[in-house]
């Protein structure tokens, strides 16, 4: 194989080969390697000689069957990568497995491809995995597809068989919205229509496989798209005066540079990039797609794993706890509407349930069904998910990478899919109000960090809730008094003070959905106290987890600390401390102060 500077400067395209087991994918790839002179010098002769010594007929598939198990089982079990070049560009070809039991491997290989060749055996015809792989390519967002009808030599190069196969497959693909650019009759064994036109099929006037690949236009570089920077982790340093907080992740699209204003979703928080961090390298001022990146912020904001950063002014991702998706189910047990699963998209991870099963395409017949209530092994389906908390995501037609997800059950990946549509949830308007607030917020020259250093505390919201008469207000007043006497900026606010003041209009008119609006306004008032650097203590009767989720939409969740007072817990709220005995208020104050010390809100004397 010859390599020169011109070849190195060519465009590169990743192409995946898929299809039912034994339909000849590896043979076609081997042919492409041999007929484009892309093999290492002497490799073809070496394989021919090895076959001769072992008394085996030579097959072009042997050129890429590098795994011993593949030769023993005569099936491709992993996604093998091989390289070849045409006059136009360089190709990385991923030969994905066709056997039904290795469907996960096929998805892994195809997810890295820009184009696909789907292979169907002309003699055996369209099989279960032929249909399944066509669906999976669409699900993975691959739009550049060639269908190669292989082994035409075994059907005497008959045009009618080719046309019938094309018609049948077209009818299926059109039902799921998949478009194929070319259907090409080929023979990997004899080389017909692989790199040169076939003399055995003069009735075919279309391109060869190589010409079809070269006709594909390269995708727009991911770095030219809007920024998507999923947060992998936040690293905090404290040794030797190093107080950096580095947000780390891999950019999936777009680019960023020092000074850019970033917006983090789903929180809507904004900050500017102070520095781009790297280990033992010259100073870096910008990064782009596919690069692992660490940044520090000018204004310290609460950021956690799973959030997605975009540049201010660029297209934002969708935010919701409800979404419509297309999935393939790989679990042995069926996907059920009443069961809880882990939904993992990018770096986010949330509990999810199937709210609605809209449509199921049966794994064997591929007939569309709308009455089934369970998704069976290897079925594909359209469903609506309800997540425990909202996440940031894109739809597959815009940003395939940040639309792909997997479903985990009992620590195993049991399925995966793509997001088709964002659906409204009950907190959508609250989030929208928060985004606008963050965008329009008039910044002070005194930052929250400045206030924390001056006041020697971190602003926080302490919620003391529980049953009526359990001692909530007594605990709040004692905690406020002790924190105040120790020099802290602290304020106690009973929620009733808001109900008859700021929220008097809601109380007076009993507006529909009034309680949610009470909580929203309460959260916004609390946000003002927190921004001012104050520790705010509030009391309310029997708050629920839904109430807390509204608060967390408006206030950074790391600033919220919850105490339940009373022997019996009467709501579904998740609390940090449970004070069962109202006679132990002093003990409760000690427990609260210890919690605040552990979380760095106040510091040990």
Account of the protein in words:
With 605 residues, this protein is α/β, with parallel strands linked by helices. The protein has four domains: 5-215, Rossmann fold (3-Layer(aba) Sandwich), CATH 3.40.50; 223-311, Beta Barrel (Elongation Factor Tu (Ef-tu), domain 3); 318-427, Translation factors (Elongation Factor Tu (Ef-tu), domain 3); 455-598, Rossmann fold (3-Layer(aba) Sandwich), CATH 3.40.50.300. Helix content is 27%, strand content 30%. The protein has 16 helices and 29 strands. A seven-stranded antiparallel beta sheet has the order 7-15-11-12-14-9-8. Strands 2-3-1-4-5-6 form a six-stranded mixed beta sheet, sandwiched between helices.
List the helices and strands and how they pair.
Blueprint (H helix, E strand, L loop, with lengths): L4 H4 L2 E9 L5 H11 L7 H12 L13 H6 L6 E6 L3 E7 L7 H8 L4 E7 L6 H12 L4 E7 L8 H17 L6 E4 L23 H7 L13 E2 L2 E4 L8 E6 L4 E3 L3 E5 L3 E9 L8 E3 L3 E6 L10 E4 L6 E12 L5 E2 L3 E6 L2 E14 L6 E2 L4 E2 L4 E14 L10 E6 L2 E12 L4 H13 L7 H8 L4 E7 L5 H14 L4 E5 H5 L4 H6 L4 H18 L3 E7 L3 H10 L5 E6 L11 E3 L5 H14 L7
Parallel strand pairs: 1-3, 1-4, 4-5, 5-6, 25-27, 25-28, 26-27, 28-29
Antiparallel strand pairs: 2-3, 7-15, 8-9, 9-14, 10-13, 11-12, 11-15, 12-14, 16-22, 16-24, 17-21, 18-19, 18-23, 19-20, 19-22, 23-24
Helix pairs in contact: 11-16, 14-15
């Amino acid at each position: 194989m010859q390599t020169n500077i011109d070849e190195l400067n060519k465009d590169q395209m990743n192409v995946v080969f898929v299809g039912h087991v034994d339909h000849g994918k590896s043979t076609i790839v081997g042919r492409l390697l041999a007929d484009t002179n892309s093999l290492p010098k002497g490799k073809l002769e070496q394989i021919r000689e090895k076959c001769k010594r072992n008394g085996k007929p030579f097959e072009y598939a042997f050129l890429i069957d590098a795994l011993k198990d593949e030769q023993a089982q005569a099936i491709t079990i992993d996604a093998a990568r091989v390289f070849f070049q045409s006059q136009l560009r360089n190709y990385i070809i991923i030969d994905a497995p066709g056997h039904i039991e290795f469907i996960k491997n096929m998805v892994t290989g195809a997810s890295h491809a820009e184009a696909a060749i789907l292979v169907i055996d002309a003699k055996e015809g369209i099989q279960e995995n032929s249909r399944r792989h066509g669906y999976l390519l669409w699900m993975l967002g691959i739009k550049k597809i060639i269908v190669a009808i292989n082994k035409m030599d075994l059907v005497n190069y008959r045009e009618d068989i080719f046309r019938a196969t094309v018609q049948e497959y077209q009818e299926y693909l059109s039902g799921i919205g998949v478009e194929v650019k070319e259907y090409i009759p080929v023979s990997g064994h004899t080389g017909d229509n692989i790199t040169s036109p076939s003399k055995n099929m003069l009735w075919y006037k279309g391109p060869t496989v190589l010409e079809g690949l070269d006709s594909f236009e390269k995708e727009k570089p991911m770095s030219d798209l809007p920024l998507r920077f999923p947060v992998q982790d936040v690293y905090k340093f404290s040794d030797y005066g190093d107080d950096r907080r580095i947000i780390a992740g891999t950019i999936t699209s777009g680019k960023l540079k020092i000074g850019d204003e970033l917006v983090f979703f789903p929180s809507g928080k904004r900050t500017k990039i102070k520095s781009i961090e790297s280990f033992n390298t010259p100073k870096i001022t910008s990064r782009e797609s596919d690069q692992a990146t660490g940044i520090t912020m000018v204004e310290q904001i609460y950021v956690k794993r799973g959030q997605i950063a975009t540049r201010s002014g660029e297209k934002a991702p969708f935010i919701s706890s409800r979404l419509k998706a297309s999935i393939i189910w790989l679990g042995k047990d069926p996907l059920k509407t009443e069961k809880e699963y882990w939904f993992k998209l990018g770096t986010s991870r949330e509990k999810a349930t199937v709210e609605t099963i809209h449509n199921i395409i049966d794994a064997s017949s591929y007939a569309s069904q709308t009455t089934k209530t369970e998704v069976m092994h290897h079925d594909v389906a359209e469903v609506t998910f309800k997540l425990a908390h909202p996440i940031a995501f894109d739809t597959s037609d815009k940003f395939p990478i940040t639309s792909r997800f997997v479903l985990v059950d009992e620590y195993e990946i049991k399925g995966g899919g793509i997001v088709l549509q964002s659906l409204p949830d009950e907190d959508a308007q609250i989030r929208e109000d928060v985004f606008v607030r963050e965008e329009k917020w008039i910044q002070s020259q005194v930052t929250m960090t400045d206030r924390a250093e001056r006041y020697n505390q971190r602003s926080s919201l302490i919620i003391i809730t529980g049953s009526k008469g359990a001692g909530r207000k007594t605990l709040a007043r004692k905690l406020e008094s002790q924190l105040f006497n120790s020099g802290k900026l602290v304020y106690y606010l009973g929620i009733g003070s808001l109900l008859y003041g700021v929220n008097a209009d809601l109380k007076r008119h009993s507006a529909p959905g009034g309680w949610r609006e009470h909580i929203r306004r309460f959260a916004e008032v609390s946000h003002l106290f927190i921004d001012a650097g104050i520790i705010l203590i509030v009391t309310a009767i029997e708050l629920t987890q839904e109430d807390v989720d509204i608060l967390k939409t408006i206030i950074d969740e790391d600033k919220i600390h919850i105490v339940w007072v009373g022997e019996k817990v009467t709501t579904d709220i998740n609390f940090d401390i449970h004070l069962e005995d109202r006679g132990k208020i002093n003990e409760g104050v000690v427990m609260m102060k210890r919690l605040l010390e552990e979380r760095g809100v106040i510091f040990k004397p």
